[in-house]
Design a protein that fits this description.
Blueprint: H1 3-11, E1 49-54, H2 66-72, E2 78-82, H3 94-98, E3 103-106, E4 113-114, E5 126-131, H4 134-142, H5 145-148, E6 151-154, H6 176-188, H7 192-196, H8 199-210, H9 219-224, H10 234-243
Parallel strand pairs: 1-2, 1-5, 3-5, 3-6, 4-6
Catalytic activity: a uridine in tRNA + S-adenosyl-L-methionine = a 3-[(3S)-3-amino-3-carboxypropyl]uridine in tRNA + S-methyl-5'-thioadenosine + H(+)
Keywords: S-adenosyl-L-methionine, Transferase, tRNA processing
Pfam families: DTW
Length: 244
């Protein structure tokens, strides 16, 4: 057998398939990092609904919190629509939801009122959140004129984010899960949402920290203490000035 035949024989040997980690059927994460045991004992069933308008890039993040929210609430109480502008033909029933009189958008515009000041004229609300980084959220809002006509609310809270393994832009920023949990607690006048919905996030962060991850300070804190390693852009600089 000549050298060429030897190499041909070697090339025809099938490669060993990659070793796949066992996945949790509920959260679809590897079983060793599954956080399902920290979900509420019984899926919470608020009167209001949560509507997430999610940037496509969020789905690719390993440490996203939207699945925790969706699995922590009763079925169909958290609906997720993906895209960069809304609504699109693929977003079934979204336009009807957005145009419903009890729909409110959680977005810190100048016209937004404190969510605590909502006049409770209806039994429930469709609470719309934009799920993405702050630059992504602003771009999605700008590209979706229908969002501009919604009643807009903002969240006032002194709670610091427990999402300490991801860098937040400012000290007061919360993750999507934490924002929804706090908003539901205020809308429903029940602290169970802020107490139980965020437990999977605590479990995720503890696992990451126990396995080499480090605690992240906000960009605002790092810049103020002159420890931020990058030059900041005009958008972040303007955002930080507006929070002072």
């Amino acid at each position: 057998m000549d050298e060429l035949e030897v190499w041909e024989d070697l090339s025809n040997i099938p490669a060993d398939p990659p070793v796949m980690r066992e996945l949790c059927e509920n959260c679809m994460r590897p079983s060793v990092v599954c956080w399902c045991s920290a979900l509420p004992p019984k899926r919470l069933n608020p009167k209001s609904n949560v509507i997430l308008l999610q940037h496509p890039a969020e789905e690719k993040r390993c440490l996203r919190t939207a699945p925790m929210l969706q699995l922590g609430l009763a079925e169909n109480k958290c609906l997720i629509f993906k895209g960069k502008k809304f609504p699109q033909p693929k977003h079934e029933n979204l336009e009807d939801i957005l145009l419903h009189p009890n729909t409110v958008l959680l977005y810190p515009s100048k016209a937004a009122i404190d969510i605590k000041d909502l006049e409770y004229e209806v039994a429930s609300y469709n609470l719309v959140l934009i799920d993405g980084t702050w630059p992504q959220a602003k771009a999605m809002y700008a590209s979706s004129p229908i969002l501009h006509v919604l009643k807009q609310v903002k969240l006032t809270t002194t709670n610091a984010s427990n999402y300490i393994i991801r860098t937040q832009p400012t000290e007061g920023c919360l993750s999507t899960l934490e924002t929804a949990a706090e908003a539901l607690s205020q809308l429903e006048k029940n602290s169970i949402y802020r107490e139980q919905l965020v437990e999977p996030l605590h479990m995720l962060c503890k696992f990451q920290l126990d396995n080499g991850a480090v605690t992240h300070q906000s960009k605002e804190f790092l810049i103020k203490t002159k420890t931020y390693p990058k030059l900041i852009g005009k958008r972040l600089s303007k955002l930080l000035k507006s929070t002072n």
